[in-house]
């Protein structure tokens, strides 16, 4: 199925409903929830999924597992997605909070097949086998830690969300503290309490995760580094490697396989 809202087909008596959807650049899907679990795959482009306690970056050829009844919103580039909406009883192993996962070459092909099966596929036969094997491969998918915690403190969260729209590695803690009418020490204490990490570490991780969508879009590494405020591509690459365990160049190469 293509570009069909899940609400129109959620009632179908099948464990899995598979839908392909294409989104324009800069699209935002407002906060919502699904009765079913969702496997959301970015075939092209990239996305960011945000919930009450964090945000998950989904580069090209990665996916995110969204547990049933999880309120979330989605921010996209020019994206083509493959979504599987799955009856909760069919995936008791699903995580309790969102999780980004790798998508193997086999799983990519299965997802492309799954969105082409009939809505009411025969419970036995090839289509059901494709769906069943897809679920097996999803369960085997390796998790990737591309999440960033978000605070519940309203004013601090608003500043974090604004930062995510235009991250800058040199955005000063003093400016954040001034907006909150607190000291820098209090700001760091608040960040640690709310997110589990200090301001500087959170800022670094936010910048690196933001760069993943730019890498997926094929932008030059030097340009990405400059847009994030790094003094040089080498400084950006050092921080990227420190946080993700691989260089931006190697990450992009691996993502294109």
TrEMBL record:
It comes from the Bacteria. Residues 154-254 form the HTH araC/xylS-type domain. The keyword Magnesium does not apply. It holds the Pfam family HTH_18. InterPro entries: AraC-bd, Homeodomain-like_sf, HTH_AraC, HTH_AraC-typ_CS, RmlC-like_jellyroll, RmlC_Cupin_sf, Tscrpt_reg_AraC-type_HTH. Coiled coil: none annotated. Keywords: DNA-binding, Transcription, Transcription regulation. The keyword DNA-binding applies. SMART domains: HTH_ARAC. This is AraC-like DNA-binding protein/mannose-6-phosphate isomerase-like protein (Cupin superfamily). The lineage of its organism: Bacteria, Bacillati, Actinomycetota, Actinomycetes, Pseudonocardiales.
């Amino acid at each position: 199925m293509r570009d069909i809202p899940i609400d129109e087909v959620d009632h179908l008596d099948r464990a899995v409903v598979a839908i392909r959807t294409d989104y324009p650049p800069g699209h935002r899907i407002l906060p919502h929830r699904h009765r079913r679990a969702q496997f959301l795959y970015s075939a092209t482009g990239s996305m960011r999924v945000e919930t009450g306690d964090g945000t998950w970056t989904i580069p090209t050829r990665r996916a995110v597992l969204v547990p049933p009844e999880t309120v979330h919103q989605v921010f996209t580039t020019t994206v083509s997605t493959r979504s599987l909406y799955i009856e909760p009883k069919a995936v008791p192993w699903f995580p309790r909070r969102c999780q980004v996962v790798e998508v193997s070459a086999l799983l990519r092909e299965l997802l492309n097949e799954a969105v082409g099966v009939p809505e009411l596929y025969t419970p036995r036969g090839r289509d059901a086998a494709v769906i069943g094997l897809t679920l097996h491969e999803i369960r085997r998918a390796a998790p990737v830690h591309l999440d960033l915690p978000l605070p519940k403190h309203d004013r601090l969260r608003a500043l974090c969300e604004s930062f995510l729209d235009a991250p800058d590695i040199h955005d000063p803690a003093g400016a954040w503290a001034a907006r909150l009418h607190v000291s820098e020490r209090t700001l760091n204490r608040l960040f640690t309490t709310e997110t589990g990490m200090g301001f500087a570490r959170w800022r670094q991780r936010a910048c690196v995760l933001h760069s993943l969508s730019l890498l997926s879009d094929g932008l030059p590494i030097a340009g990405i580094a400059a847009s994030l405020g790094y003094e040089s591509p080498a400084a950006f690459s050092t921080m990227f490697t420190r946080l993700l365990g691989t260089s931006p160049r190697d990450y992009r190469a691996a993502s294109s396989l």
